[in-house]
Amino acid sequence: MEGQVIRVRRKGQITLPAEIRRDMGIDEGDKVVLTRENGKYALAAFSDVVDSTAGALAEYAIGKPPIGLDDIHRAIDEAMMENYLRKLARERSPEEIEAVKREVAEGRSEYEV
């Protein structure tokens, strides 16, 4: 297992090196989750559906008539798919990502957009 020493600053703050942030897909302002299992800690990017869909309906809000549930569900599905594809981009090749997109378009995936 690879390791890197990181200094703990005042108030318990740490700085994750840029390479680690890139590998984990973490950007400024993102949330991370620290878990403990069998006496060991692990840090992971935190993906929250509420956070990832926040603002997804903004285009419908100002000066437009109310939207229906179909529009809301479509916007949520699109935001979840974007989040899923971002995660895939960190873990899979471009060819695998395109295959997933084809499966979704053909209705052969758990994600329906």
Overview of this structure, please?
The chain is mainly alpha-helical. 45% of the residues lie in helices and 11% in strands. It is built from five helices and two strands. It has helices at residues 18-24, 49-53, 58-61, 69-91, 94-105; strands spanning 32-37, 40-45. It has a two-stranded antiparallel sheet. The longest helix is centred in the C-terminal third of the chain and has 23 residues, at 69-91. The protein is extended.
| Low confidence ranges | none
Percent of residues in beta strands: 5-15%
**Helical fraction:** 40-55%
- Give helix and strand order, one letter per element, not per position: HEEHHHH
Distance between the termini: 38 Å
- Work out the helix count: 5
* Strand arrangement across the biggest beta sheet: 1-2
Summarize the helices and strands and which ones pair or pack.
Layout: H1 18-24, E1 32-37, E2 40-45, H2 49-53, H3 58-61, H4 69-91, H5 94-105
Antiparallel strand pairs: 1-2
Question: Could you provide a short overview of the structure?
Answer:
The protein is built from five helices and two strands; from the N terminus they run αββαααα.
